[in-house]
Amino acid sequence: MSETVLRELDDGVLRLTLNRPARKNAFSLEQWAAFADAMEEASADPRVAVVLLCGAGGNFSSGTDLHEFSDAGADHPFARCSRVVCAFDKPLIGAAAGIAIGGGATLLLHCDVLYVGESLRMRFPFVSLGLVPEFASSYRLQAAIGPRRAAELLFTAEWIDAARALETCIATAVLPDAALEAHALAKAHQMAQWPVGALQQTKRTLLAAHGAGLAEALRVEEEGMKACFGSPENQEAINAFIEKRAPDFRRLR
C-alpha cells in the first residue's frame, strides 16, 4: 500500500489523506494509482459508509506533479482515477485548506459536501498551461456554480479564496483552518451512522442525473487534452514552470 495516500477507517468513515507534503501533495503517477485503488476498494467495502478527503501538511493538493507530467492516454493512472471518482457511489466529503490547484481543485468538485479552511487558495489553471479542463470539471463546475461563473473561472485561471468558494457554492462552509478537519470528521461520522445501503443508494440517485454529462465531459476533455498536450503553448507553459518564470505565449502567435 502506497504511503502517498494514507488510509484510516474508523466506525464507518474512511479518511484518505494525500501525503506528499513536501510537494504540496502534488500527484505523482504512483499517487494517482494509489488514490484510484483506495476509492475502488472503498466502494466495494461494506465497512465504509463515508469517505473523507484531506491533505497533509496544510495543503490539499497542488495538482499533477509537473515534474512527472506525461501523456499516457487511457493507460495513465489519472484516466482510471477520473473514471473511478466520477462513478464513486458513497458520500464523499472534502476538507481542504491551503493550495488546491488543477487536479487538486477538480477532484474537490466531486465531493458531495466540501468544507474549506480560511487559507484556501483554489485555481483551475488549465488555459494557462495550454491545456483544457479535466476530471469532468467542465461539467461539474458548471453544474455547481452555473455556466457563466464557471466560464469566468476557467477562462481567467484566476485564484479563488475561501470566501469566493463559499459565495459561488463550490464550498459548503468555511472554517478556521484549526477546526476544519475536526468539523468535517464529525459531519462524516454523523452521516456514517445510517445504513450503508441507504447511503449508497442515495448517492446513486444523486449521480443518476449527471451520468451522461460526466461521461461526455470525460470524452471531450480527453480529446481536447490529446490535441493540446505537447503543443508549443503547452511546452512553453511547462518550461516556464520548471524555469520559474512567466510564460510568454504571445511570441508563439
Shape: globular
| CATH superfamily heading | 2-enoyl-CoA Hydratase, Chain A, domain 1
Poorly predicted runs are: none
> What's the count of strands?
9
| Secondary-structure element order, N to C | EEHEHEEHEEHHEHEHHHH
Q: CA-to-CA gap between the ends?
A: 46 Å
Our count of helices gives 10
Architecture, according to CATH? Alpha-Beta Complex
Give the class from helix and strand content and strand pairing: alpha/beta
Biggest sheet details: 6 strands, mixed
Helix content, binned percent: 40-55%
Number of domain modules? 1
Q: What is the name of the CATH topology?
A: 2-enoyl-CoA Hydratase, Chain A, domain 1
Radius of gyration: 17 Å
Strand content: 15-25%
Question: TL;DR?
Answer:
By secondary structure, the protein is of the alpha/beta class. It has ten helices and nine strands. It has a single domain, classed as 2-enoyl-CoA Hydratase, Chain A, domain 1 (Alpha-Beta Complex).
Task: Write up this protein.
It is a single chain. This protein has one domain (1-176, 198-253): 2-enoyl-CoA Hydratase, Chain A, domain 1 (Alpha-Beta Complex), CATH 3.90.226. The chain is an alpha/beta fold. The longest helix has 18 residues, at 211-228. It starts with a strand and ends in a 10-residue tail after the last helix. It contains ten helices and nine strands. Helix 1 runs parallel beside helix 2, helix 4 (137-145) packs across helix 5 and helix 4 (137-145) crosses helix 9. 45% of the residues lie in helices and 15% in strands. The protein has a six-stranded mixed sheet with strand order 1-2-3-4-6-9, sandwiched between helices. The chain has helices spanning 29-44, 77-86, 103-106, 137-145, 147-156, 162-167, 177-192, 196-208, 211-228, 232-243, and strands spanning 5-10, 13-18, 50-55, 92-96, 99-101, 113-117, 121-123, 160-161, 173-175. Strand 3, helix 2 (77-86) and strand 4 form a beta-alpha-beta unit.
